[in-house]
Amino acid sequence: MLDMVSFSDLGVSRRLVEALSAQGINEPFEVQTESIPDGMLGNDLCCRAPTGSGKTLAFGLPLIERTKKAEPGFPTSLILTPTRELAEQIFKVLDPLSRELGLYTYAVYGGVSYTKQFKALDRGVDILVACPGRLIDLIDRGSISLEDVEIAVLDEADRMADMGFMQPVCQILDECRNDRQTILFSATLDDEVAELVRDYQTNPVTIEVGPEEVTMESMTHYFWLMPNSKKSTISNEIIRKCGRTIVFCRTRRGADRVGEDLTHDGLAAQTLHGGLSQKQRDRAMARFQHGECMALIATDVAARGIDVEGVNCVIHYDPPENGKAYKHRSGRTARGGSTGIVISLIQKPQRKSISKIQREVGINVEFTPPEFGDLPEFEVEFIGASRRRSFGSQNRNESKSGHYGKRNRSGGRSNRSDRNSGSRNQERPDRNYNKKKPRNTHSRPNRGQKPKPEKTTQPSRGRRNNRGNRSRGRNNR
Fold it and tell me: Distance from CA of residue 109 to its chain's centroid?
């Protein structure tokens, strides 16, 4: 009977139900069915649920229903997330819904200007979505106070623990009201997450949805042996055969290099890592989510908290750090009951460490040479890279514009002289050299050595003739 439950049955107001229906969301997922009623009652929640299970609405709907109007600089509801991408994702889901009830939602995170965030906080924010680092910074600057926060949500709490955010998270919770409602969502409920539950929640309702860990059985695993020099070519072929793919690299520079290689080979690809500005990261995610490119090359910043539908393949271009990282990376495919493949590109010296990772995640797969015939068939829409000018593949002197493009052409003039003279150059193609004006070496059509004038023994009056001879000789060249 679970499929017969509606959002109205869970206590969600009519206006929000209509807003959800307008987005095509009519029936709640399991985690929403389990969490929303207790959330609406104001109980503390401790929920274990995998990414992509619908938890944003599971905590977002009761939060919107219970949030009170806030004074400028004093939000009444707070959502903490580990990454900028997840903060922006939550904001995009909750903002249109909160506006239905006259509430203002805003997201703050690092990598963007403080000015816009100051202005938004001065206007007044009811629901604040934040990353711990930037929020602590705003508190220290005196731009925001959390003393009115009545509802605090910790999303991806285990990921925040992995990233070393536990101390800032505890500091932030200490700034909130003591009688607040605390909602915690996490993929696991052990170690530091269990300490959060013990220290900052009061008689929490514990909800567990889905498998305790990312299941490896829903995806097919391949471990292909190859030299490092072949990885780029092999990745290119995998993407062309499988379609939408996420490629994981260990470093920012590596991600940039792989992205450039794939683009050079004609594939539309985007890179995502912490070295990019927030606008660049948002643009890359948007292009991949909307199907404008075939591959997303990322560091582990995208391994958790990002839910992208239709990812057929995950490539471990560089080996993950451990079994836990392997699971989180691989979990970007085979989501929502679908299937997917995971391909690890392995060099021979890495076999021992990869075998250890296999044991940690509970799989046993042989190391084999690349065999594309073993891969399943996918419906693939090829998306080519946009053509870009590159000095690496094009002669500089053949460019259509720019100083270096015309400077050394025989008979040509510089851009500056073209702009200044305009059409007059057609009427006066040659000009006599005027000794009184300095030479403009950039406008000289011939940069070679000039011939030495012949020495003559004529009376002093002949200087004019010499000058005239030089002028005529210059005109004749």
Answer: 14
